[in-house]
Design brief:
Pfam families: ABC_tran (PF00005). The chain is α/β, with parallel strands linked by helices and 235 residues long. 39% of the residues lie in helices and 26% in strands. It contains ten helices and ten strands. The strands form two sheets. A six-stranded mixed sheet has the order 6-7-8-3-9-10, with helices on both faces. The protein has a four-stranded antiparallel sheet with strand order 2-1-4-5, covered by helices on one side.
């Protein structure tokens, strides 16, 4: 469904991605493991059109989306939930969610249907729908960010560090929601530093270091790999 071939991304003289080739098949939940600065966010920015590749291709359902506008990529079915949430803190929860559906704004009936589904998935957001998003807890704000991404009607959902800065119990809740989203048919590409928790819900994983893929495999392979355990799990 989503495939990158030889993706290279430069920031001036710095090469953030160096020939990345990865894929996510329909219905998969694939994890990108890596430390800060490894290239995970740059990878997602390239897929979502916010950064232009210096070289390589990004294929989504047999169409090359490299170089398309971000709005066109969302319309095609690839939606990015960024690191750090990037909410509008003074706007209400409801308005933040509706912004996720902006490219589909003509279809008001479907937008309301998905909004209702988001509120069903996150009841606390319905309760706080008229509150300023910035007044919510960190975990609740992450729910808004994920809900906003779902409003874009993703076939492929890019989730960049959704557990960052959250308490362990909230991390478990958020990852449980991500698993449910995937179980309902959405392909998920998840960037995470919390390797152990992420691998519990993943089918496959890639390890990225200095903009290069250095390892890949299924969940069991990476969970039992000594290098992965020492570098990312701490055991």
């Amino acid at each position: 469904m989503l495939r990158l071939e030889g993706a290279q991304l430069n920031y001036g003289s710095f090469r953030a991605l160096d020939g990345i080739t990865i894929h996510a098949d329909p219905g998969e939940l694939v994890v990108m493991l890596g430390a800060n600065g490894a290239g995970k966010s740059s990878l997602f920015l390239a897929i979502s059109g916010l950064r232009k590749l210096s070289r390589g291709n990004i294929w989504f359902k047999d169409q090359n989306i490299a170089g398309r506008k971000p709005s066109q990529i969302v319309q095609a079915g690839v939606v990015h939930c960024p690191e750090g949430r990037k909410l509008f803190p003074e706007m209400s929860v409801r308005k933040n969610l509706l912004l996720g559906a902006y490219v589909h704004r003509q279809d008001k009936k479907e937008t309301q249907k998905i909004l209702d589904q988001v509120f069903e998935m996150f009841p606390i957001l319905h309760e706080k729908r008229n509150d300023a998003a910035g007044s919510l807890s960190g975990g609740q704000q992450q729910m808004v960010a994920i809900g906003r991404a779902l409003m874009g009607r993703p076939e492929v959902l890019l989730l960049d560090e959704p557990s960052l800065g959250l308490a362990p119990l909230v991390v478990k809740q958020v990852l449980g929601v991500i698993k449910t989203i995937n179980d309902n048919g959405t392909t998920v590409l998840l960037a995470e530093q919390n390797a152990y928790a992420a691998l519990q819900i993943a089918r496959r994983a890639y390890v990225i270091e200095s903009g290069r893929i250095v390892m890949e495999g299924d969940r069991e392979t990476l969970l039992n790999d000594e290098r992965v355990r020492k570098a990312y799990i701490g055991a």
